[in-house]
Amino acid sequence: MQITVLGCSGGIGAGRRTTAFLVDDDILIDCGTGVGDLSLEAMARIRHLLITHTHLDHIACLPLLLDTLFSRLQSRPLVIHARADCMHIIHDHIFNWQIWPDFFELPERERPVVRFHAMEPAVPIYLDGRRIDMLPVAHSVPAVGYRVERDGAAFAFSGDTTSNDGFWDALNAHDTLDLLFVECAFPDREQALGQQAGHYCPALLARDLTKLRHAPRVGITHLKSGEEDSVFAALQARVPGRELLRLCSGDVFTI
Protein backbone atom coordinates (compact mmCIF):
# COMPACT_ATOMS: atom_id res chain seq x y z
CA MET A 1 0.00 0.00 0.00
CA GLN A 2 0.99 3.58 -0.56
CA ILE A 3 -0.17 6.29 1.86
CA THR A 4 0.17 9.93 0.83
CA VAL A 5 -0.19 12.67 3.44
CA LEU A 6 -2.31 15.37 1.83
CA GLY A 7 -2.84 17.30 5.05
CA CYS A 8 -1.84 16.77 8.68
CA SER A 9 -1.88 20.18 10.35
CA GLY A 10 -3.95 21.28 13.30
CA GLY A 11 -4.65 24.60 11.61
CA ILE A 12 -4.18 26.66 8.48
CA GLY A 13 -1.56 29.08 7.20
CA ALA A 14 1.14 29.06 4.54
CA GLY A 15 2.14 25.47 3.84
CA ARG A 16 -0.39 24.03 6.28
CA ARG A 17 -3.20 21.72 5.16
CA THR A 18 -5.76 20.04 7.41
CA THR A 19 -6.29 16.32 7.70
CA ALA A 20 -6.51 14.05 4.66
CA PHE A 21 -4.66 10.84 3.78
CA LEU A 22 -4.78 9.13 0.37
CA VAL A 23 -4.46 5.34 0.39
CA ASP A 24 -3.17 4.05 -2.95
CA ASP A 25 -5.14 6.26 -5.33
CA ASP A 26 -8.74 5.34 -4.54
CA ILE A 27 -9.33 5.61 -0.77
CA LEU A 28 -9.37 8.90 1.11
CA ILE A 29 -9.25 9.06 4.90
CA ASP A 30 -10.85 12.34 5.94
CA CYS A 31 -11.38 15.26 3.61
CA GLY A 32 -9.64 18.30 5.04
CA THR A 33 -8.09 21.13 3.07
CA GLY A 34 -5.20 18.96 1.87
CA VAL A 35 -7.52 17.42 -0.72
CA GLY A 36 -7.54 20.70 -2.60
CA ASP A 37 -3.95 20.15 -3.77
CA LEU A 38 -4.90 17.06 -5.80
CA SER A 39 -5.31 17.33 -9.54
CA LEU A 40 -8.77 16.82 -11.01
CA GLU A 41 -7.60 13.50 -12.40
CA ALA A 42 -6.38 12.35 -8.98
CA MET A 43 -9.64 13.44 -7.35
CA ALA A 44 -11.62 11.49 -9.94
CA ARG A 45 -9.81 8.26 -9.01
CA ILE A 46 -11.10 8.41 -5.42
CA ARG A 47 -13.84 5.83 -4.95
CA HIS A 48 -14.15 5.64 -1.15
CA LEU A 49 -13.98 8.15 1.70
CA LEU A 50 -13.48 7.07 5.31
CA ILE A 51 -14.50 9.79 7.77
CA THR A 52 -13.16 9.77 11.32
CA HIS A 53 -15.47 12.51 12.60
CA THR A 54 -17.33 15.62 11.53
CA HIS A 55 -15.18 18.50 12.74
CA LEU A 56 -14.61 20.98 9.94
CA ASP A 57 -10.86 20.48 9.63
CA HIS A 58 -11.57 16.85 8.68
CA ILE A 59 -14.44 17.40 6.23
CA ALA A 60 -13.90 20.95 4.90
CA CYS A 61 -13.31 19.85 1.31
CA LEU A 62 -16.12 17.28 1.13
CA PRO A 63 -18.81 19.65 -0.23
CA LEU A 64 -16.43 21.13 -2.78
CA LEU A 65 -15.09 17.71 -3.79
CA LEU A 66 -18.58 16.47 -4.64
CA ASP A 67 -19.38 19.66 -6.51
CA THR A 68 -16.12 19.49 -8.48
CA LEU A 69 -16.61 15.83 -9.46
CA PHE A 70 -20.38 16.01 -9.94
CA SER A 71 -20.50 15.06 -13.61
CA ARG A 72 -17.93 12.28 -13.20
CA LEU A 73 -19.69 10.76 -10.18
CA GLN A 74 -23.02 10.32 -11.94
CA SER A 75 -21.82 7.07 -13.49
CA ARG A 76 -19.96 5.84 -10.38
CA PRO A 77 -20.90 7.45 -7.04
CA LEU A 78 -18.46 8.17 -4.26
CA VAL A 79 -19.04 5.93 -1.22
CA ILE A 80 -18.66 7.52 2.22
CA HIS A 81 -17.90 5.12 5.08
CA ALA A 82 -18.45 6.44 8.60
CA ARG A 83 -20.44 6.01 11.78
CA ALA A 84 -24.15 6.43 11.20
CA ASP A 85 -24.34 9.35 13.64
CA CYS A 86 -21.52 11.12 11.78
CA MET A 87 -23.40 10.86 8.54
CA HIS A 88 -26.55 12.29 10.13
CA ILE A 89 -24.52 15.30 11.30
CA ILE A 90 -23.07 15.86 7.83
CA HIS A 91 -26.43 15.55 6.14
CA ASP A 92 -28.32 17.75 8.60
CA HIS A 93 -25.76 20.54 8.87
CA ILE A 94 -24.01 20.67 5.49
CA PHE A 95 -26.01 18.98 2.73
CA ASN A 96 -29.21 20.70 3.80
CA TRP A 97 -29.84 23.04 0.82
CA GLN A 98 -28.81 26.02 2.98
CA ILE A 99 -25.11 25.48 3.57
CA TRP A 100 -24.75 23.31 0.45
CA PRO A 101 -26.98 21.37 -1.99
CA ASP A 102 -27.95 17.85 -0.92
CA PHE A 103 -25.76 15.67 -3.09
CA PHE A 104 -27.45 12.62 -1.57
CA GLU A 105 -30.44 13.62 -3.75
CA LEU A 106 -28.62 14.88 -6.85
CA PRO A 107 -29.03 14.53 -9.75
CA GLU A 108 -31.95 12.38 -8.53
CA ARG A 109 -32.76 10.76 -5.20
CA GLU A 110 -32.75 7.32 -6.85
CA ARG A 111 -29.24 7.78 -8.29
CA PRO A 112 -27.24 10.28 -6.20
CA VAL A 113 -23.58 11.04 -6.82
CA VAL A 114 -22.68 9.99 -3.28
CA ARG A 115 -23.76 6.99 -1.22
CA PHE A 116 -23.36 6.30 2.48
CA HIS A 117 -22.23 3.07 4.12
CA ALA A 118 -22.58 2.88 7.90
CA MET A 119 -19.65 1.22 9.68
CA GLU A 120 -19.12 0.22 13.27
CA PRO A 121 -16.15 -1.00 15.34
CA ALA A 122 -15.44 -4.75 15.24
CA VAL A 123 -17.11 -5.18 11.83
CA PRO A 124 -14.42 -4.88 9.12
CA ILE A 125 -15.07 -4.05 5.49
CA TYR A 126 -13.04 -5.12 2.46
CA LEU A 127 -12.22 -2.80 -0.44
CA ASP A 128 -10.28 -4.33 -3.33
CA GLY A 129 -8.08 -6.53 -1.17
CA ARG A 130 -7.73 -4.12 1.74
CA ARG A 131 -9.28 -4.87 5.11
CA ILE A 132 -10.48 -1.81 6.98
CA ASP A 133 -11.31 -1.85 10.68
CA MET A 134 -13.01 1.00 12.51
CA LEU A 135 -11.32 1.69 15.87
CA PRO A 136 -12.79 3.29 19.01
CA VAL A 137 -11.31 6.60 20.21
CA ALA A 138 -12.17 9.33 22.73
CA HIS A 139 -12.98 12.72 21.21
CA SER A 140 -15.44 15.53 21.94
CA VAL A 141 -17.85 14.37 19.20
CA PRO A 142 -18.62 10.89 17.83
CA ALA A 143 -15.30 9.77 16.32
CA VAL A 144 -13.28 6.74 15.28
CA GLY A 145 -9.87 5.76 13.98
CA TYR A 146 -9.08 3.28 11.21
CA ARG A 147 -6.71 0.38 10.62
CA VAL A 148 -6.02 -0.68 7.01
CA GLU A 149 -4.34 -3.98 6.13
CA ARG A 150 -3.29 -5.58 2.88
CA ASP A 151 -1.16 -8.69 2.31
CA GLY A 152 0.01 -8.73 5.91
CA ALA A 153 1.07 -5.06 6.03
CA ALA A 154 -0.96 -2.61 8.12
CA PHE A 155 -1.18 1.01 9.17
CA ALA A 156 -3.57 2.83 11.50
CA PHE A 157 -4.76 6.39 12.00
CA SER A 158 -6.14 7.66 15.28
CA GLY A 159 -8.11 10.59 13.91
CA ASP A 160 -8.66 13.02 16.80
CA THR A 161 -8.53 11.53 20.28
CA THR A 162 -7.30 11.96 23.80
CA SER A 163 -6.13 9.33 26.28
CA ASN A 164 -8.13 6.08 26.20
CA ASP A 165 -7.69 2.32 26.28
CA GLY A 166 -10.02 1.26 23.48
CA PHE A 167 -7.88 2.49 20.57
CA TRP A 168 -4.75 0.76 21.85
CA ASP A 169 -6.59 -2.44 22.79
CA ALA A 170 -8.00 -2.59 19.26
CA LEU A 171 -4.52 -2.22 17.74
CA ASN A 172 -3.12 -4.88 20.06
CA ALA A 173 -5.85 -7.30 18.99
CA HIS A 174 -4.12 -7.60 15.59
CA ASP A 175 -0.84 -9.36 14.87
CA THR A 176 0.88 -6.56 12.96
CA LEU A 177 1.18 -2.79 12.76
CA ASP A 178 3.85 -1.29 10.51
CA LEU A 179 2.91 2.37 10.64
CA LEU A 180 0.84 4.47 13.04
CA PHE A 181 -0.42 8.00 12.47
CA VAL A 182 -1.50 9.51 15.77
CA GLU A 183 -2.42 13.04 16.77
CA CYS A 184 -0.70 15.23 19.35
CA ALA A 185 -2.34 18.63 19.19
CA PHE A 186 -1.76 20.54 22.42
CA PRO A 187 1.35 21.47 24.42
CA ASP A 188 1.61 20.00 27.89
CA ARG A 189 0.84 23.34 29.51
CA GLU A 190 -2.65 23.08 27.96
CA GLN A 191 -3.26 19.46 28.95
CA ALA A 192 -6.56 20.26 30.70
CA LEU A 193 -7.86 22.11 27.64
CA GLY A 194 -6.67 19.30 25.39
CA GLN A 195 -8.54 16.70 27.40
CA GLN A 196 -11.67 18.84 27.36
CA ALA A 197 -11.39 19.16 23.58
CA GLY A 198 -10.53 15.49 23.14
CA HIS A 199 -6.88 15.79 22.06
CA TYR A 200 -3.50 14.43 23.09
CA CYS A 201 -0.59 16.40 24.49
CA PRO A 202 2.95 14.94 24.71
CA ALA A 203 2.59 13.71 28.30
CA LEU A 204 -0.65 11.86 27.61
CA LEU A 205 0.45 10.39 24.30
CA ALA A 206 3.78 9.24 25.73
CA ARG A 207 1.89 7.41 28.48
CA ASP A 208 -0.55 5.80 26.05
CA LEU A 209 2.17 4.68 23.64
CA THR A 210 3.38 2.34 26.38
CA LYS A 211 0.10 0.44 25.95
CA LEU A 212 1.01 -0.54 22.39
CA ARG A 213 2.66 -3.95 22.07
CA HIS A 214 3.73 -3.28 18.46
CA ALA A 215 6.74 -1.19 17.43
CA PRO A 216 5.64 0.69 14.30
CA ARG A 217 7.02 3.89 12.90
CA VAL A 218 4.92 6.63 14.50
CA GLY A 219 3.91 9.68 12.48
CA ILE A 220 2.61 12.64 14.47
CA THR A 221 -0.34 14.62 13.10
CA HIS A 222 -2.53 17.56 14.09
CA LEU A 223 0.20 19.69 15.70
CA LYS A 224 -1.32 23.08 16.46
CA SER A 225 -0.25 25.89 14.14
CA GLY A 226 2.63 27.83 15.67
CA GLU A 227 3.26 25.12 18.28
CA GLU A 228 4.63 22.44 15.95
CA ASP A 229 8.29 22.61 16.93
CA SER A 230 7.79 22.75 20.68
CA VAL A 231 5.09 20.06 20.87
CA PHE A 232 7.04 17.63 18.69
CA ALA A 233 10.27 18.24 20.64
CA ALA A 234 8.47 17.68 23.94
CA LEU A 235 7.07 14.38 22.66
CA GLN A 236 10.48 13.24 21.43
CA ALA A 237 11.93 13.94 24.85
CA ARG A 238 9.25 11.82 26.50
CA VAL A 239 9.63 8.78 24.20
CA PRO A 240 13.37 8.56 23.42
CA GLY A 241 13.14 4.90 22.42
CA ARG A 242 10.54 5.36 19.68
CA GLU A 243 10.97 6.35 16.06
CA LEU A 244 8.83 9.46 15.68
CA LEU A 245 8.13 11.17 12.37
CA ARG A 246 6.86 14.73 12.11
CA LEU A 247 4.46 14.47 9.20
CA CYS A 248 4.30 17.03 6.41
CA SER A 249 1.92 17.43 3.50
CA GLY A 250 3.34 15.50 0.57
CA ASP A 251 4.97 12.73 2.61
CA VAL A 252 4.57 9.31 1.01
CA PHE A 253 4.84 5.98 2.82
CA THR A 254 4.93 2.52 1.28
CA ILE A 255 4.27 -0.60 3.35
Short description:
The protein is built from 9 helices and 14 strands. The chain has helices spanning 40-44, 56-59, 62-68, 70-73, 84-93, 166-172, 191-197, 202-209, 228-238; strands at residues 2-7, 20-23, 27-29, 48-50, 78-82, 114-118, 125-127, 130-136, 144-150, 153-157, 179-183, 217-221, 244-246, 252-254. β2 (20-23) and β3 form a beta hairpin.
What is the strand and helix layout of this fold?
Layout: E1 2-7, E2 20-23, E3 27-29, H1 40-44, E4 48-50, H2 56-59, H3 62-68, H4 70-73, E5 78-82, H5 84-93, E6 114-118, E7 125-127, E8 130-136, E9 144-150, E10 153-157, H6 166-172, E11 179-183, H7 191-197, H8 202-209, E12 217-221, H9 228-238, E13 244-246, E14 252-254
Parallel strand pairs: 3-4, 4-5, 5-6, 10-11, 11-12, 12-13
Antiparallel strand pairs: 1-2, 1-14, 2-3, 7-8, 8-9, 9-10
Helix pairs in contact: 8-9
Account of the 3D structure:
- With 255 residues, this protein is α/β, with parallel strands linked by helices.
- It has a single domain (2-254), classed as Ribonuclease Z/Hydroxyacylglutathione hydrolase-like (Metallo-beta-lactamase, Chain A, 4-Layer Sandwich), CATH 3.60.15.
- Helices cover 25% and strands 25% of the residues.
- The protein contains 9 helices and 14 strands.
- The protein has helices at 40-44, 56-59, 62-68, 70-73, 84-93, 166-172, 191-197, 202-209, 228-238; strands spanning 2-7, 20-23, 27-29, 48-50, 78-82, 114-118, 125-127, 130-136, 144-150, 153-157, 179-183, 217-221, 244-246, 252-254.
- Strands 6-5-4-3-2-1-14 form a 7-stranded mixed β-sheet. A 7-stranded mixed β-sheet has the order 7-8-9-10-11-12-13.
- 44% of the residues are buried.
